[in-house]
Amino acid sequence: MVEDKNKEELRHLVRIMNTDLQGAKPVQYALTGLPGIGRRTAILIAKGAGVNPAATLGYLPDEDVVKLDTAIGNFEDLVPTWMLNRQNDLATGEDKHLLGTDILLTFREDINNLKKVRAYRGLRHERGLKVRGQRTKSTGRRGSTVGVSRKK
Q: Which portions of the sequence form the region Disordered (predicted)?
């Protein structure tokens, strides 16, 4: 009978940081559904909030979910600077950890800035070529290609 009661309490979707996370997964894997949080980061957040990382997210009481939400908001205080994903920001010069849509928008903005100042990396992005020094003679041919027409 106890198992039936627990199955009724399982919330299949848990809302954290304006994102729906899967309640059937353990906390350490469910938090990775947020952009900007990986497995190692998720474990640190769960421990910082005082929640068992192996506990199923859907069975957590509302108080623990609120603790997780605040721990995600205060992530910069929980970890050393080298673990943050936005160190020495170009605009402000501060160290911060971006989450959700902020990380996607900032990444796109950085690439646009590289294109605007005509940096080498920006030019490679514009042309759809490899950016990080990989060889391009025979690999990376996916993308904009012109097929060879056959003689009839």
A: 132-152
pLDDT band at 147 (very low <50, low <70, confident <90, very high): low
The pLDDT of residue 143 is 67
Tell me the sheet residues that pair with 127: none
- Residues 40, 99 within the same domain: no
Q: Distance between CA 12 and CA 21 in Å, rounded?
A: 8
pTM: 0.75
Backbone angles phi, psi at 124, to 5 degrees: -65, -40
Determine the structural domain holding residue 47 and report its residue range. 13-82
Residue type, 45: I
- Give Cβ neighbours of residue 20 (< 8 Å, ≥ 6 apart): 13, 14
